[in-house]
Amino acid sequence: MANSWKSIIDGWSAHFLLSERFLIAGDILNGLGELNESGRLYTRAREGFERTGNRLGMGKSLHRVAMVEQARGRIDSAKESCECARDIFEKSGDHARVAATLHQLATIQQQMGNYRDASRLYSKALRIRRRLRHQSEIAAALHQLGTIKQLLGHYDEARKILKESLEIEANSGALLAAASTMGQLASIEMETGNYAESERLIGQAKGMFTRLGDQEGIAGALSQLGRIHEVRQEYDEASRLYNESQEIYRRLGIPRCTAETLHQIASIKFFKGSYDEAKRLYEEAMGIEHRLGDRSGVAAALHQLGRVEQKRKNYDEARRLYNESLEITQGLGEKFGIARTLGQLGSLAEEQDDLKLAENFYKRARSAFRELGTKPQLEQASRDLQRIQNLRRHLSRHR
Question: Could you read off the pLDDT of 235-259 as tens digits, one per residue?
């Protein structure tokens, strides 16, 4: 009988150790952007913990599965796994992990474009973290909450929240996090037209990343600097910075960020009228996103390829690409992507002189941006709609 119990315990120990190793291996592969393989290992870890009745291990595995599924664009699956993990942590009284899953659920809502729901969940996670006095987690929640306020166009509120996050990070010596928050503050200044201040903040962040030897952070700062030069229509300098950023990401083996910089380089080619090169780069980015299972990224690439074809006046192909992008974003429930493509379909209809159809698309885009609460995009969609309505009234009076 003793030997039988010993065998059972040894089996449990083996399952536990193997499951823990699956989690570690999954974390390594996830960090390298290998979503399919890391997801497989996290699932095997969950199965191992489930066999031994290890609820905490199951919760940890499910939380990681949720992160991978979210990155792959499988939003419903990500949400389900994350909610299961949260339930496990709530029943075990693990408040820190409850806050972590609330934070993750907030990022899911953010990806879907449900910014108000995301704000509510970040705030809930923040309240728990304040009670626990976990300074780094408080700062992380503030950072994300500030980002949401920025997406909603509430720039003053976003600055205030991000500055609180930055103060905590600086006081606790979390310099990498502080540099990241400085970069987020820089993006607010860029969006509000304060380019000199944005450039100053990014330069500070880049300096911190350089001193810390954080190559990924340096690449991100270079990308942000490129964006400032792009907005200024200084395309050669923007292209140089984007390419330098991409070289670092390729060297580090971070495919998702490599794809993002390919999008940025392609946008420069697009604005310079090099449509063949823009198309090649968007397709290269889409190939990476396909391999990663990043459906949101694929939808963005299809949208941009549609813009290329629209510029070439290949209207049928542009419409096909926009509709394919829209089908993906609607399936994901990604509201920002839906609104963006509806607006572009309005532009396509307007270019083809189908003003009634253009008005319909612009109305739908305005409604979508109004639901999101994103002020800058809502204002643009309203201007587009007003322009078409004025034109239709003018034409009807002169018939």
Answer: 999 999 999 999 999 999 888 899 9
> For helices 175-191 and 195-212, what crossing angle results, to 10°?
160
Domain ranges of the chain: 34-69+76-107, 254-333, 344-399
Q: Is the pTM of this model over 0.85?
A: no
Which pair of structure tokens corresponds to residue 151?
Answer: 């997406």
CA distance 388 to 346: 10
3-state secondary structure of 2: helix
What is the second-level CATH architecture of the domain 254-333?
Alpha Horseshoe (1.25)
Of 100-104, 116-120, 125-129, 371-375, minimum mean pLDDT range: 371-375
Distance in Å from the first CA to the final CA of the chain: 98
